Amino acid sequence: MHYPPCVEIDPPGQAEYSVIWLHGLGADGNDFLPIIPELRLPEDKPLRFVFPNAPSIPVSVNNGYVMPAWYDIYGMDLLARIDVQGIERSADYLLTLVEAEINKGVRAENILLAGFSQGGVIALSAALRTDLPLAGVMALSTYLPRALVLENPTPRSIFQAHGRMDNVVPPQAARDACQRLKEMGHEVEWHEYEMAHSLCAAEVRDMREWMLRQLD
């Protein structure tokens, strides 16, 4: 499977913190570039943003149309038949990006994973497949398929946010994921907003506060 090069935004000098942020279905690594200035993160935290690009694959729910996707989606019921192999493959790829950041001198506890929609599934899956002491995970407008076997006991700090009017990933699927993560022993900070399958200004403000706490 070919994963295109990442989009990377480096700080002046040596990065001490990293955020690896995965886009959703049909988007690319440039999708969340505009959010960087909106986060207003302090300049005294030299932080590198890494925005991976998903491979282009046929997506079953879109009649086999080839588009950037972290895994195949078979139907509108996201919790029915699941492309477990595709999710695990992309989660393993994400962990290679984590290792690359560590090799560049960033400590594991200074690395945040983030993902929107499909990307959130991969960010959560990767974090739950490693015992590295990551700073946390931002799971945005996403879910957690029960078909995934997730047995890693390493506790995670997770920021989970969802729109009450989301018609792509049902809010209840996100709430179920939140409950499952809590039952697994993870610390989940749950947020709901009056929005659809997107981000909003209040969410960005809450993300900023959470990120600052995790990277402190």
Task: Provide a compact summary of the structure.
With about 220 residues, the protein is of the alpha/beta class.
Structure commentary:
This protein has helices at residues 35-39, 84-103, 118-127, 171-183, 201-214; strands at residues 7-9, 17-22, 47-51, 56-59, 65-68, 111-116, 136-140, 157-163, 187-193. Helix 2 crosses helix 3. It is globular, with a radius of gyration of 16 Å. The protein has a single domain (7-214), classed as Rossmann fold (3-Layer(aba) Sandwich), CATH 3.40.50.1820. The strands form two sheets. It has a seven-stranded mixed beta sheet with strand order 1-3-2-6-7-8-9, with helices on both faces. It has a two-stranded antiparallel sheet with strand order 4-5. It is of the alpha/beta class and 216 residues long. A hairpin with a 5-residue loop joins strand 4 (56-59) and strand 5. It contains five helices and nine strands.
- General form: globular
Strand/helix succession:
EEHEEEHEHEEHEH
Distance between the termini: 36 Å
| % residues in beta strands | 15-25%
CATH architecture: 3-Layer(aba) Sandwich
Let me know the number of strands: 9
The CATH H-level homologous superfamily: Alpha/Beta hydrolase fold, catalytic domain
Reading off the top of the CATH hierarchy, the class is best stated as Alpha Beta
Task: Give the fraction of residues assigned to helices.
Answer: 25-40%
How many individual helices? 5
Cα-based radius of gyration, to the nearest Å: 16 Å
Total separate domains: 1
Q: What structural category do the secondary elements indicate?
A: alpha/beta
How much is the average pLDDT? 94
Q: Mind summarizing the main beta sheet?
A: 7 strands, mixed
- Widest β-sheet, arrangement of strands: 1-3-2-6-7-8-9
Uncertain spans: none
Do you know the CATH topology? Answer: Rossmann fold
